[in-house]
């Protein structure tokens, strides 16, 4: 048994490289944000202003990402967090997505107003600032790109807990440390191992880069062919793009926060593995939820009618990558609802 319950269930991996790169990206974003918003008002460009407003929201989002990293690191191992502090980072990503939706709404309103009430634009200056903004956005995107190849912070001190409940309510606790490797689902876990807090920051700067591209296209077309209306139209297109990306991020982080991942292939893998090894095993309860970037907790309850021990069931599941906290319950006096 671990002497410290808080440490025994801490699945926070940490990501110092991502935290450092996020700090640099925040600095670049703040500097460019001030330049673009100022230039947008001076040169009267809606697309340029929209890009600057994006950057203001992204600066706030990057600040939230840094705060989430700091909080998760500070409270890692604290006993009041049942499974560690990883979800602080996920909450930071979810909040960033909400800010994306808010700024998309603001962009839409302002772009429509400018479309209905057009104003003269100083194209040369506006294009120059937009190009500079794009370069800054690309630099930030490079800093915040998927860190999977840089960071494999798997806490391989996996905690597997097996509980055997008989009529006298005696409990047998079997603790094991396993290095989980299941190559059948390598692609699935390759996708899930990403840092959702970092991904939220990355989406912010990437959407801003896309908006910069739209601004450059609109301003260039306006200068060459006099299509002034294209500038606010690109602002509208940008708001739609931001909305789409934000909704995707909300779904991804929301599923984790609400433990709504029972439909993951990993869930099917666990149940199929048990059914193949023990075809008549009466499983009465099953739960799977994420407790870390690379870690899942799993509860399997078996009703009456089996002579197998928790250790036997555990051995069948230990090599499945991602199962870091495994609880096996055998209740001889409980019949399965499926029987």
Provide a descriptive summary of the structure in words.
- With 339 residues, the protein is an alpha/beta fold.
- It has 2 domains: 5-152 and 194-257, Up-down Bundle (Alpha-lytic protease prodomain-like); 156-192 and 261-339, Alpha-Beta Plaits (2-Layer Sandwich), CATH 3.30.70.
- The protein is built from 10 helices and 5 strands.
- Strands 2-1-5-4-3 form a 5-stranded mixed beta sheet, with helices on one face.
- α2 (16-43) runs antiparallel to α3.
- The longest helix is centred in the N-terminal third of the chain and has 31 residues, at 86-116.
- Residues 151-191 are annotated as: Disordered.
- GO terms for molecular function: zinc ion transmembrane transporter activity.
- Keywords: Ion transport, Membrane, Transmembrane, Transmembrane helix, Transport, Zinc, Zinc transport.
Low-confidence parts: 1-7, 147-190
CATH architecture annotation of the largest domain:
Up-down Bundle
Give the strand order of the largest sheet, numbering strands 1, 2, ... along the chain.
Answer: 2-1-5-4-3
Order of helices and strands: HHHHHEEHHHHEEHE
Number of domains: 2
Helix count, per DSSP? 10
Mean pLDDT, to the nearest integer, reads: 78
Form type: elongated
Which class do the helix and strand fractions yield?
alpha/beta
- Secondary structure: helix percent: 55-70%
Between the first and last Cα atoms, what is the distance in angstroms? 36 Å
